[in-house]
Amino acid sequence: MAPRKQQEIFDATLRLVAEKGYDGLTVEGVAERSGVNKTTIYRWWPSKAALLGAALVEADLLEFEPPDTGSLRGDLVALVEGIRRLLTEPPARDIAVAALGAAVRHPELDARRFFADRFARERQVFERAVRRGELKRSVDPMLVIDLLAGAVWVRAVFRGLPLTDDFANQAVSAVLGGVAT
Amino acid sequence: MAPRKQQEIFDATLRLVAEKGYDGLTVEGVAERSGVNKTTIYRWWPSKAALLGAALVEADLLEFEPPDTGSLRGDLVALVEGIRRLLTEPPARDIAVAALGAAVRHPELDARRFFADRFARERQVFERAVRRGELKRSVDPMLVIDLLAGAVWVRAVFRGLPLTDDFANQAVSAVLGGVAT
C-alpha cells in the first residue's frame, strides 16, 4: 500500500478512536472516513485492534523523535514535555487516553508494542548520558522512563490535575538529584 | 444503612466490576449479588458511577493503611509494595485495573476521589520524613507519590511486564538518591 494511503488510514483510525472511543471504532468507520475499501483494510490489518496498534506506532500524527539537547537533564525535560503534550493537548490527548485506557480492558489491543517502540528510541538518550558520565551505571533506563511517564499519567489523567509549567523541571530534578536530604 | 450491609454492597460492586468490567456493572447486578433491594441501593447511591466511586474509597476489600516503618525509605518501599499488590494480585488487580481504566473514559466515575483519599493518608509519611529531616524541603510529596505509583502502573499495566522482587527498592532508591552521577 502506498505510504500516503496508509497514513490516511492511520489518521482516520486515530481520529475515530479519539471521537468515539475504542468501542465506537470500527473498520467500517475507518473505511468510510479514509475512502479506502473495507476489504483492503482487512487484508493489511486483520482486526480493529491490529489496525489501532499499528496506527499508534506508525502514524505521523503521533510521531516521536527522541530529543538530543546535549545533556541528560535537557533530554529528560524534553521527553517529559513531549509526554505532557501527548496526554494533555488535543488531538493527541484524546487518542492516547482512549487507546491506552482501552488497552487495559482489551489485551488484544497491544499497548506493549507502543511502549516498546518508544523505549527502543528513548534508549539513545541514556546511552549518550552514560558516555557523558551523567548517569549512575546501576540505573535501569526503563525505570527512569516509567517514573517520569507514570507521573505525568497519574497527575494528568487519574488525578485530573493541571500540570504546571514547571512540572517537567520538578519531576526531572527529583529523579536526577533525588528527594532525600 | 448498617455498616455490614454497606460492605456487602461494596464487595458485590467491586467483584462485579472485576468480573464484567465497568460496562457490565449494573446496580441490578449488585442488588442481586448482595441481596439488597435495588431501590434501597439507588436511595444511597444515585448511579453505578457513584456506587463504584464510594466502593473504591470505602470498601474493606481495598483498605489502605499508610505504613509507619520509622524511615522514609521503609515507608516508601512499603507504599510501592502496596501499589504493586493492588495492580498485580487478584482480586485487587482486576478491580483496580477495570475501575481506573474505566475512569479514563467515564469522567462521571470519579477516580480523583480515590487518589485524593489515598493522598490525604499518604501525606503523614512525608510529614514524619520532614520532621526527621529526611526529605528536601523543596520537594512536593504528591510528586513523589506520582513518580512511584506511575512507574508501577506503566510497568505492570501498560508494558505488561512482571515486577521483579527488587522493583520497589530500585524505584525508591532512584527517587530518594537520584539517578545522576
Count, helices of chain A: 9
CATH architecture of the largest domain in chain A: Orthogonal Bundle
- Please tell me how large the radius of gyration of chain A is: 18 Å
**Largest interface in this structure:** A-B, 51 and 51 residues
Shape descriptor of chain A: elongated
Domain HTH tetR-type (chains A, B): 3-63
Protein name (chains A, B): TetR/AcrR family transcriptional regulator
InterPro entries (chains A, B): HTH-type_TetR-like_transc_reg, HTH_TetR, TetR_C
DNA-binding region (chains A, B): 26-45
List the defining traits of the structure above.
9 helices; 181 residues; mainly alpha; transcription (chains A, B); Arc Repressor Mutant, subunit A; elongated; 71% helix
Structural commentary:
- Two copies of one chain form a homodimer.
- Chain A is mainly α and 181 residues long.
- The first copy, chain A, is 71% helix and 0% strand.
- The mean pLDDT of chain A is 95.
SSE map:
2 copies of one chain form a homodimer.
Chain A: H1 3-24, H2 27-34, H3 38-44, H4 48-58, H5 72-88, H6 92-105, H7 111-131, H8 141-158, H9 167-177
